[in-house]
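During the no-cost extension, the postdoctoral fellow (Dr. R.K.) reprocessed legacy sequence entries with the updated structure-token encoder. One reprocessed record is reproduced below for audit purposes.
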Amino acid sequence: MRFIFSIVKNIVAVLAIIAIIYIALKYAPFLRDQEWNPLSDTSNNVQQNLNDTQNPNGSSSGEPQNGKRYSLKENDIINNVPSSQIKNVFNMIDKREFMSVSGIGRMGYNDKYLAGQRDDEFIIYKFGSDSIRVYKTEFEMQQDLNKLGQHIELKPADAYN
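Re-encoded structure tokens follow.
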């Protein structure tokens, strides 16, 4: 009887460990976007080194490589906020002030993504991610938004009260 109870107890412990690992890989922001994560959503899995978009001599090529229409940059939109709380903070802040501080001329957002135009660059930021996608044209950005199943219209700062 003790032997059977010991086996059941060990099986329950293994299942609990598997459940904890699954939840961590599926929902923890710092693990969810890693390219090695088998549970990450492949349409949202865009992590790559920033060095991939540089020439061997160290200068930026301006044209993304590996068949991508965008390049990745470090998230400089919202700093000093835990990635799990970025969406909550973004909902509370004044959008006009956010646009002026971050240099975004036109912006749109939904529950998952923030899209905007900064000078001659177009960006897509997934809330909670460590990087932003940077595009050369609005058309390329809209194409990738459509691939992600998102429709975000860019609006000027006057549209946000």
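The two ends are 69 Å apart (CA to CA). Residues 1-31 form one domain. The remaining legacy entries will be reprocessed before the final report is submitted.
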